[in-house]
């Protein structure tokens, strides 16, 4: 169960966001900046569900803050990116299942990720066998890997489904149509709402600098992850349906998807960490800065260790690299519902809900 302090924080973040949104609704200067403001201007009163929907629709590009005439030292002291970021984080914790795990990674992300990776690396290294060859499956049998990783993949997804269902009810979501899903996927794939509303990019890094860097690094991260997932999915189909077990040649789909996806994911996450380190923390939820950085670093470790495993898989480093890479992947799966990874699912739900307006 959530603590009383957590409940108070949610109420406070909602009330502050409502105060700022009411001022924004009266001003309307930022109407064309992103999808948040047209949705704001259709409302007269802001329920808790409305504010949570708007917070998950916000991409924290920060253009509205730098354009606003009512930021501090004005008495209104508007900081909408921060207000919505705090509501957004509180909403994820509020709807997380099981609730006992909510917020743990936000506060102790580095420690949790490192301890999980170290423990799982030791476990996976210690259970390795010695087969007749020098391949992954000589060290860890394929069926054994499936028995370990399939539940670790499916169970977190089921908890996310429960969380998203709670969110969907709170934001008064309607029956979903394929057209709405398609439009939301297009917006997510293009990172449409990171272009600043005018096509010049956003101000995430600097007040006076419009840039598409954050958009491009997000795209590299997203498409890199999807390509890596496609590589695993295709390899599974080849193994079970076509009786074509690994290892695969460089010209095969698993290798092409995996290597290209790993490179994109490494570049994207490294770029996002650099941008996050430079950006003004006061325009985000400072409570979870460390957890967000730890999550991006975890994604970087997943992709980079996978690339090293591909490059050095034929050397004496294979046993350790295999254990370490699988440990990072397993850690990512297990922490998905409680880390920043959940934001992709909530963001897609918010985009679908926005298409229903």
UniProtKB/TrEMBL annotation:
Keywords assigned: Membrane, Transmembrane, Transmembrane helix
Membrane-crossing segments per the record: 110-131, 143-164, 220-242, 254-275, 287-311, 317-338
Residues forming coiled coils: none
Domain of life: Bacteria
Record's protein name: 4Fe-4S ferredoxin-type domain-containing protein
